[in-house]
């Protein structure tokens, strides 16, 4: 194949590529909207957003640009009636850190990634707590934040399993001639 | 599409994260400075999503119904025994209630008592969870031109749920009585002492500020108080329970974990709204 120019992309292939690039963001947004449906489990929405963001930042960072993370954070803040911007900043910081560590994380086993995720979730909850305390100017209890960490740590394996299936399918489609 | 040289593109992509983080701080400041803008943005988004949530409500409700049905089947025997006992107790209460009602009618006739008009209410479906980590709230799906106002009081079939804090075109947000920002003036029904019910984000709000000498007793009924003009007097709220630490808490009558439909009552009150709500309650339109 070397030396020959790459054939121009057909319209269908272009649509396919765009859909693939937009998929992680779209899926995360969809999950966040769905998580707002009341199922008797409060605080599901922020717990769903974080696993998606971390997973795609580790395994497919090109598909989750910072601008998309900004939009997702804003969506989460507006949906969960949190102070606007607190979720945005938390998700952006998480994305920045995870993208920096991704070379190391991508080679690890699932269990190691999960453990790293738990650490990230704990840090994110601490940052979110701090931001809400500063923005609301009152001391908040720590327990809801810890509950949030445990909820999202529990949701991670299931979500990661589904997303890694999708990721594999996408990689296969990309490597196909 | 604009073609950029590779080094420039790399520099841009490296810069985008810090720039966006700075933008996030800007958003925070903007949300803090113009709280009305943030509220409007939230309600526009909720209005846009409310029809989708309302559609999703159907399958979710049927799945929850099926799970509940299975639970009922499992607990059939124990529940039956409990219901038999309760029925027996309620039958005795019914006799008392009938006697008291008759007596009340006689007394009211003697006093020329003018009864209060029954308040108008509308029944609304709960479509989404409107809270996050540090808030307990629900979103209601309403029809356009509904007449829902801020400050209206939401009750389910058993008792107090909360108050309307934001109203959009197709959705409204109700801050639950369990939310941390919720402060509800209540009356202990046994001693007629006033107290404050303070939300903690947990299932049971705490009682505070009761007068000395009339501490809330376990099992005492709690109703709303008309203090501060936020609530009408006498709405059923819950029962006093002691926590493990001995602090008095309220077990709410309303089942906040399984809210499907709530009734919004318009008492035409203009009391204080929770601190996070920006605008004052709107006055009731004159009829």
TrEMBL record, chain A:
Keyword Transmembrane: yes
UniProt entry keywords in alphabetical sequence: Membrane, Transmembrane, Transmembrane helix
Transmembrane stretches, start-end: 29-58, 78-98, 110-130, 142-162
The protein's name: Rod shape-determining protein MreD
Species of the source: Belnapia arida
Automatic annotation (TrEMBL), chain B:
One Pfam family from the record: MreC
Annotated keywords: Cell shape, Coiled coil
Organism: Belnapia arida
Ranges of residues in domain Rod shape-determining protein MreC beta-barrel core: 144-264
Keyword Ligase: no
UniProt entry tagged with the keyword Cell membrane: no
Coiled-coil blocks: 73-110
Entry function: Involved in formation and maintenance of cell shape.
Official protein name in the record: Cell shape-determining protein MreC
Entry similarity comment: Belongs to the MreC family.
Gene behind the chain: mreC
InterPro entries in UniProt: Cell/Rod_1 (IPR042177), Cell/Rod_MreC_2 (IPR042175), MreC (IPR007221), MreC_beta-barrel_core (IPR055342)
């Amino acid at each position: 194949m070397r030396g020959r120019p790459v054939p121009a992309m057909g319209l269908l292939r272009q649509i396919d590529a765009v859909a693939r690039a937009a998929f992680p963001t779209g899926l995360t947004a969809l999950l966040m909207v769905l998580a707002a449906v009341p199922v008797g489990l409060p605080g599901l929405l922020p717990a769903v957003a974080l696993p998606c963001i971390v997973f795609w930042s580790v395994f497919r960072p090109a598909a989750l640009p910072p601008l998309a993370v900004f939009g997702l954070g804003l969506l989460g803040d507006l949906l969960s009636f949190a102070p606007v911007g607190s979720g945005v900043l938390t998700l952006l910081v998480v994305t920045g850190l995870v993208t920096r560590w991704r070379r190391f994380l991508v080679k690890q086993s699932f269990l190691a990634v999960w453990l790293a995720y738990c650490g990230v979730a704990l840090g994110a909850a601490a940052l979110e707590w701090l931001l809400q305390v500063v923005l609301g100017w009152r001391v908040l209890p720590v327990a809801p934040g810890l509950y949030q960490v445990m909820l999202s740590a529990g949701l991670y394996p299931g979500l990661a399993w589904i997303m890694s299936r999708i990721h594999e399918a996408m990689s296969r489609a990309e490597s196909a001639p | 599409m604009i073609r950029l040289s590779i080094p420039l593109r790399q520099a841009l992509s490296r810069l985008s994260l810090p720039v966006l983080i700075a933008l996030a701080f800007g958003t925070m400041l903007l949300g803090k400075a113009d709280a009305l803008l943030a509220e409007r943005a939230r309600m526009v988004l909720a209005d846009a999503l409310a029809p989708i949530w309302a559609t999703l409500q159907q399958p979710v409700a049927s799945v929850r119904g099926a799970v509940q049905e299975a639970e009922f089947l499992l607990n059939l025997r124990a529940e039956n025994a409990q219901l038999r006992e309760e029925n027996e107790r309620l039958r005795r209460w019914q006799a008392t209630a009938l006697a008291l009602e008759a007596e009340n009618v006689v007394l009211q006739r003697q006093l020329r008592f003018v009864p209060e008009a029954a308040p108008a209410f509308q029944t609304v479906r709960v479509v989404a969870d409107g809270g996050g980590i540090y808030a307990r709230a629900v979103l209601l799906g309403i029809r356009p031109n509904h007449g829902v106002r801020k400050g209206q009081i939401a009750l389910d079939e058993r008792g107090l749920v909360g108050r309307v804090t934001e109203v959009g075109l197709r959705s409204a947000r109700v801050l639950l009585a369990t939310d941390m920002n919720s402060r509800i003036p209540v009356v202990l029904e046994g001693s007629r002492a006033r107290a404050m019910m303070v939300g903690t984000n947990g299932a049971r709000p705490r009682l505070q500020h009761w007068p000395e000498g009339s501490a809330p007793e376990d099992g005492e009924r709690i109703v709303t108080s008309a203090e501060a003009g936020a609530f009408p007097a006498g709405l059923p709220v819950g029962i006093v329970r002691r926590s493990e630490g001995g602090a008095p808490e309220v077990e709410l009558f309303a089942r906040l974990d399984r809210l499907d439909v709530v009734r919004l009552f318009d008492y035409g009150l203009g009391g204080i709204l929770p601190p996070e709500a920006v605008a004052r309650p709107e006055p009731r339109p004159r009829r």
